[in-house]
Each structure stands twice: as structure tokens, then as C-alpha cells.
Write a structure and sequence with these properties.
alpha+beta, Nuclear Transport Factor 2, Chain: A, 25% helix, 4 helices, 6-stranded mixed sheet
């Protein structure tokens, strides 16, 4: 069976764009990576986020990636399988992330295994389902603010009360 290398590359770009938009709080472009009826199931050691539509999921992200947060998400080792019809695909990704929440004084870091489903639309590939389970998660209390010299979300993230 021949690999659909163009679809695989486009899906890799889609997932990388998802993470860039996530960390930069670019919710308008992030919305373009997801289907309207996207399903989400992110299971961490200290949380679980489940959504069945793009709108609610984006609101959750706006609250999480706020002006007092610092985020870094990278995905590695993609395993992408495109269906024979070329219209759907699945993907597994190895995630490494670090998330500082200066408002709530915690730093979460860890590794997770993503399992996604993709659909090809008239606008290109979109994420139809995204889920992960943690391989490990470390949540640490922040005693004093780290000496960041730059924090992108400080200027673009939602300001919380």
C-alpha cells in the first residue's frame, strides 16, 4: 500500500499550526484547524477536559491561556495513517509541554500521547477529534515569579479578574 505523503505532510502542518496557535493565543486561526463539531478528551493527572464542539473548547482555551500564563507545547514522532479514500486519517503524537500559570501559582509539565482523527474538507484537513492521556505529569507550586524577560500571552491573553 502506497503512503499518501502529501496528506501526511499537510496533517503534520495542521498539528504544528494547532500548537503554535495554542501557545500564541491566536484563537481565530486556531478555530480554522478544528471542525465545528470537534470532540476533545484531554486527560491529565490533575484534570480532564472534554468538549463536543469548537466554540466551547475555544472558550476553555481562552480562559486557560490567559495573560498570566506561559505555554510551550511541542509534538514529536507523528504516526499518521490516511484512509484508503483519502478523506479521513488518524494520528498519534508524542507531546511535551510546559505550562506556567502565574495567577494560580503552578507550573505543569509533562508528556502525553495524543490520538487524533482528521477529516479532509473543502478548506483542507481539520482536526475532528483530539485526545490525550498523560505518560507523566508534574505539577509544582510556584513560590515566586520566575524571572521571565518575555511573556507573549501577557499582551495577547485574556485578562482574568
Amino acid at each position: 500500500m502506497a503512503l499518501d505523503l502529501e496528506a501526511i505532510e499537510l496533517i503534520k502542518q495542521l498539528k504544528h499550526r494547532y500548537f503554535r496557535c495554542l501557545d500564541m493565543a491566536d484563537h481565530n486561526e486556531l478555530a480554522t484547524t478544528l471542525t465545528d463539531d470537534v470532540t476533545i478528551d484531554y486527560q491529565g493527572g490533575s484534570y480532564r477536559a472534554q468538549y463536543d464542539n469548537r466554540s466551547d473548547f475555544l472558550e476553555f482555551l481562552a480562559m486557560a491561556f490567559h495573560s498570566q500564563a506561559v505555554a510551550q507545547h511541542t509534538a514529536h514522532h507523528p504516526e499518521i495513517e490516511v484512509a484508503a479514500d483519502g478523506k479521513t486519517a488518524t494520528g498519534k503524537w508524542y507531546l511535551h509541554d510546559i505550562f506556567w500559570d502565574l495567577k494560580y501559582r503552578v507550573k505543569t509539565s509533562g508528556v502525553a500521547l495524543y490520538q487524533d482523527k482528521y477529516v479532509k474538507t473543502d478548506d483542507g484537513w481539520k482536526i475532528a477529534h483530539s485526545g490525550y492521556t498523560r505518560v507523566y505529569e508534574l505539577v509544582e507550586k510556584i513560590e515566586e515569579d520566575p524571572p521571565f524577560t518575555a511573556r507573549h500571552l501577557q499582551s495577547v491573553g485574556r485578562v482574568l479578574d
